[in-house]
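Reading group handout, session on sequence-to-structure problems. Before we discuss, look at one worked example. The prompt was deliberately terse, the way you'd type it at a terminal:

> structure NmrA-like domain-containing protein

The input record follows.
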Amino acid sequence: MSEIKSVAVVGASGALGPHVLKALLDANFQVTVLTRSKKEGAYDANVKIIEVDFTSVESLTAALKGIDAVVSTVAAQASQVQTVIIDAAIAAGVKRFIPSDPMFKIKQYLQEKADAGQLTWTVLVCGAFLEFLFGGPLLLDFVNHKATLYDEGDNRLSSTSLPNIGKAIAGILKNFEDTKNRIVRTSEVILTQNKLVRIAEGIRPDIKWETTKVQASAVLKEGLGEISAGDFSMPVILKVLAGTALGGDSYGSAYDETDNELLGVKELSEEELKILVAQTLG
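And the output record:
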């Protein structure tokens, strides 16, 4: 039986947050949302809402009393706030912390706390959000039938849908010991740009695709240079994400070995992928 009964979610109003909340409620966890300001009717009636000051360990500690696990879904730009939340989680006696955007510093910080026996952690690596890949032009521009191929277009990338990421997080908390102090991976589908172009051409042979090529390493270098210069804007972050995610197997962007079965994530079939492409093409 899971040692986790009560879960606090940070960043619940973002793109991923609602899916995490639904999955946790479906799994019968007691869910609390930590927020800067309450909004009436924003969450399910079964969700407890607590206003906190995210810069204050004292405020967060008070809110986390009696909470077994914390799930952070904050955006990349705000990920550094997690160290304050981690300190508060330890002070409140939280058992498990699941960070978002697990940068090396955050993971290292969690490991130091785990080594000291202060809490446990799990990092979920899920690839790119499936909805993000099909809702924008990163992989393919489905609207204008254009493809900017990174390298030769055959670099592999794992992807998982938002509902399945939520399910995976619930799966982590239901499998407390098996997910303790380690990275777990989920991958609903492994994609390449060329594979998607071939599927699209098979569905709509009347459409002529316009393709160009860029070097993933050049895009990554440009993005890292801009970050070093102090530019943390979303376009710059997307360059870094694209340069690594679409940079080939050297970056480990495709997960051939996963924890899908443990976490209850079902892989996308070829037919389901074709349906998704067809719906995106319109």
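Points for discussion. First: The chain has two domains: 6-125, 128-159+188-253+266-281. Second: The chain is about 40% helix and 20% strand.
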